[in-house]
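Help wanted!
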Amino acid sequence: MQECMDWTSVNFDWNRARAFLVTAEEGSLSAAARALNMAQPTLGRQVSAIEEELGVTLFERVGRGLELTEAGSRLLVHARTMGEAAQSLSLAATGQSKAVEGHVAISATELYSVWVLPRVVRHLRNIAPGITIEVVSSNEISDLKRREADIAIRNTRPDDPDLIGKLIGNDSGTFFASPSYLEKLGPVSTLADLADADFVGFGEFDEFLGALQGFGVPITKANFPTRSASHTAHWDLAKAGLGIGIGPCAMGDADPGLHRVLPTEPQFEYPVWLVAHRELRTNPRVRLVWDVLAEMLPGILQGTP
Amino acid sequence: MQECMDWTSVNFDWNRARAFLVTAEEGSLSAAARALNMAQPTLGRQVSAIEEELGVTLFERVGRGLELTEAGSRLLVHARTMGEAAQSLSLAATGQSKAVEGHVAISATELYSVWVLPRVVRHLRNIAPGITIEVVSSNEISDLKRREADIAIRNTRPDDPDLIGKLIGNDSGTFFASPSYLEKLGPVSTLADLADADFVGFGEFDEFLGALQGFGVPITKANFPTRSASHTAHWDLAKAGLGIGIGPCAMGDADPGLHRVLPTEPQFEYPVWLVAHRELRTNPRVRLVWDVLAEMLPGILQGTP
DNA sequence: CCTGATTTATGCAAGAATGCATGGATTGGA
DNA sequence: TCCAATCCATGCATTCTTGCATAAATCAGG
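Answered by r_m:
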């Protein structure tokens, strides 16, 4: 243990680093000031101050608005790490705070319940021991207004004005099948080669079939010898070699028991929304779970565990 | 790109996080105040402020001195991440600063020149494009006073009062040999089994032999059929299967062409010092290289690339 | 070309953080 | 047991930062 560390290099004003970070991310001093609930001149002075303190020009004053210099973008990555650590610190702190105790129910589709939520819940248990989590696994659009869940992960924008939503990003799904079935099927180079393939169906049958045909997959009802209303069952049936299934790209790619039928096609894109009661957002423990979900979901969906 | 990010969780006072970090690392408010060139009451108030801001008690006031609470230690890891990022930011900034341009010569032993310095130089080239680096590879104790090098990595504490030194940590070396030679040698379970082994010698012969015998290795001059004054040549001779060589544990463990002769024995421990002119420490570009070395060396020596 | 909206920069008063000096408390050793 | 050293907490004058109001500058669109 080195007792006498040299702190001179961390002796600059960290708040100015924060000013630099959110100014760069938001794109302008005014927007950053709004985001931080501060006055715009304050942020401008902080940015100028850190520029002088570090001896580096971070932004080029080009007309209205600022533009990152090359040095600024190189320094921004470190400011981002600081920001992420600050966010983690803040989240973990509100978790440790004895004020947040109680129960939070998260609703998600079946596949998300087994694919993304376990990690999130594990992390939540670490940073907020006082919170108990309930996972409501359902393919139905869970009714938040009836308190079946406090937070829901959905694939559509919420339309109810009482609900507040946050767009996390886009997830994508594609065709997967077990290696054994792919061997039986023979080589597949285009979607047209799937005319005689077996598919494992799930959910609303006609809607599903229509979507596939819209993508140029030449299939009919005869291509569905197996079928389940449960998405997890559908997934396991595909894994058992009974045909081609559909699931999130990141989930299938991470599963050694499944391979993509085609490397890139087809690509089903759908948005991922976090939804909650507008009033519940102010509840500290729901707010904590919300923030942790918003922090972790993008990484998980992009398949970077 | 999500345009409207939520910055509320990074909206706390980052300087207070810094106060928390160095107070925890230094162990007391007074020591932290000295390290940061601040007054002790200031730091005390900042720590109290962040405790109230986060709603978490970070320190237990126990007599004289503070003691981290459990929540505090859990939050400290995030503060450490912030601090490391802040240090990287600061270093990269002084590197980008156009003030630091010129030449810096680093002296190191032959093995360190090929094992640790390449990574450091690569990193330096990234964060400080204006600095050119010269690696002075020499087993001799390079004379800093004659300007053969600006910074030296040594294994002894500098005794000259004009030189300033910083202890990086301890490195350790042990016996390595190629798989082919280990097979030829047969099973080895204790140091006594090495009485008939071939060693590759290097450096001062008698001193080397004495040190080995002091470790309880039963060898004589007859055990040294091969020998080189160059440490890198000695290393490559061992890699070529000509006998047992000695080198840093982390370096040998990372080399697929070499295995340890014995899993833990013998363990040669030696300190690693960074040395420079006292006056040169104030030179910004030398200071930058010094700081980067101090930051990277511990990780490299412990074999965590 | 001109207008309106939006941005960055500056002046000034209020507020907050800082440093110094000091008091109170605890530990370790003579 | 007492003393010296060390540490944390508090009061107060000073310095620094912040926020508001406003000016100057730039871009988009009619």
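OP: Thanks! One thing I noticed: Residues 62 and 68 of chain B are 10 Å apart (CA to CA).
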